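Reopening this ticket.

The earlier resolution said the output was attached, but the attachment link was broken on my side. Pasting everything inline this time so it's all in one place.
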Amino acid sequence: MNNAFDITNMKYVPKHYTSFLFFILFAVVFILFWGRKSDLFQIDFLLQQMPTFYQHISNFSLSYLFFAGIGYFWLLMGMKFRYVIVLGIALLLANLIYELFIPVLNTPDIVDAYFGFAGTILGFLFLFFVYKSGLNPNPIATE
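Inline output:
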């Protein structure tokens, strides 16, 4: 039986260092996110540079995780990189529009949008690396 998450449906497989980098970045972003609620995960240097750092990190984390997660899956499935770029642009616009014009469950704050931009850009850099040198053709892919 062939389902959507069967490895034979993936056009590409990640190289070992690509998978390693994906999980390292994922872990770093989660540690930064956990710093919002736990002093154990807060980085003093970041707080010294910007005392409100952890008030904005959720936008960074959500933008990165959403973009890198979906984009990575798309690249493994063989989608064209231009669709990944369109998703990134949509995410940048969504950050800006939500933070400036939609006060639902949100206090408008341009700094939150900047953090969302940073998360999206980090995700783009990771995905561009994956696209350029992080994938191998899947030897057991079905056409």
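Reporter confirms the inline version is readable. The chain has one domain: 11-35+56-135. The CA atoms of residues 7 and 117 lie 32 Å apart.
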